[in-house]
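ok so I'm stuck.
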Amino acid sequence: MKLARILILVAACAGNGAAIAQTATPVAPVASAHDPAHLAAAERVIDAMALVQVFAHSIDRSVAQMRAADPTTADLLSEASAPLSQRKFIVDELRDFVAAQLDAPSCTAIADFLEGPVGRKHLQAQLEELRTGRPTPVVLDAREQAIEQAFGQSAAGAAFVRFATALGPRFAELTDKANAQIAANVRALLDRRLLAPAAKQ
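replied:
not stuck anymore, here's the structure
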């Protein structure tokens, strides 16, 4: 199982959809159909895959690109996007999706693996590649290779591959929702700034 490629693919899905101020219709939240223990296990997967950092990075990168061209607009964009790069927004948006894709035992097994020494090596490489844009090799010793192989051949490993495939489109949807909210936040901030001088008169 090419775990590193799976994780980098997830990161790329977030990065490729980060154009700011696209329009989309926000989806109203619905009550979860999953029990609290299952949702807690799903949240472990989100944290273990560093999905909060991956998604937040895509927003921060857009702000940085804007700052190079227009610092004033970048400040506005940074303020408007700040709530959308917070852990609460990202976890709230992904937790039910993860639980719908993975049963509770699979969530636990995947999180256990990703939180272990082999998973951490892959995730550190993913985040480094995301930061630098350069491939980061993962070096595993014989014992670690055996751990990775055992996970890849397990039911949880197979479920993880299926889940990672489904995660790309969900990240794109989440990016559209975040972009729509950022655009609304920009409009609200501009309106507030336009009204502020009038209020002082």
